[in-house]
Amino acid sequence: MTEPHSTPAPLPPAGRRTRPILPIALLLLVAVATTAVVLLVTRGVPSDPAGIGTGKTVPNVAGTTLTGKAFDLAALRGKPVLINFWGPGCIPCREEFPLLAAKAAEHQASGLVIVGVLTDDPVEPARAFAAQYGGTWETVIDPGGTIKAAYHVIARPQTYFVDRDGVLRSIQPGQLTDADFERQFAKIAGGG
Q1: Are 77 and 164 in contact (CB under 8 A)?
Q2: How confident is the model at residue 40 (pLDDT cuts 50, 70, 90)?
Q3: At CA 178, angle to CA 187 and CA 155, rounded to 5?
Q4: Kind and range of the H or E run holding 106
Q5: Which of 166, 147, 137, 135 is closest to 53 using CA atoms?
Q6: Which of 10, 72, 134, 162 is the most exposed place for a label (fewest CB within 10 A)?
Q7: What element of type H or E holds 36?
Q8: For residue 25, what pLDDT is reported?
Q9: Residue of 167, 18, 150, 153 whose CA lies nearest to 80
Q10: Other C-beta atoms within 10 Å of 53: how many?
Q11: Does 6 have pLDDT greater than 70?
Q12: Crossing angle of helices 91-106/178-189, nearest 10°?
């Protein structure tokens, strides 16, 4: 007995063929990146990702600000300082910005100074964003990434809480919440 001969189904036109490997590879890449971020956030971003040492004097931040002024962190000794590495192209930075504006006003009487460090984004969009959303603090431009390198910034936003003596007391990798801010600000607000 012979089996009937079957003809294979015709292939779709070249423009309509799909490449299942590309979507699968992209999904795999997204899954790996998401897993890495989740592990960093939930399991163990080191307590000192900067490598500068909690309890040690922070590296100086000096340069030109978005407003064209000269800036030197050393001039802020005697005040609690929050150093925030950010850029307007970073979505969590954009979401965090209103909180920083509110906290700058709320803690003005304690002498809090917020210092932004523009990281990995162009100046003009940062200048426009800061003006539009109430960024009254100075943001230092870091075109060569030397400040970012000195602080070993691993991602944006990343925030450093520095006490009145210029000593690092806490680091917040990722976006600050109100509770994060208050808990870490308490470590630098004393004295003065």
Answers
A1: yes
A2: very low
A3: 80
A4: helix 91-106
A5: 166
A6: 10
A7: helix 21-43
A8: 55
A9: 167
A10: 11
A11: no
A12: 50
- pTM, full prediction: 0.74
Tokens of 178: 């109100």
**108: which 2 tokens?**
């003005």
Q: d(Cα 46, Cα 92) in Å, to the nearest integer?
A: 20
Q: Which residue has the higher pLDDT, 12 or 190?
A: 190
Per the CB < 8 A criterion, the answer to whether 84 and 145 are in contact is no
The per-residue pLDDT for 16 is 53
Total residue count of the chain as it appears in this document:
192
Query: Which residue shows structure tokens 């590495």?
Result: 85
- Tokens for 176, please give them: 């600050």
Residue 109 tokens read as 């009487």
Report the C-alpha gap between 89 and 156 in whole angstroms. Answer: 10
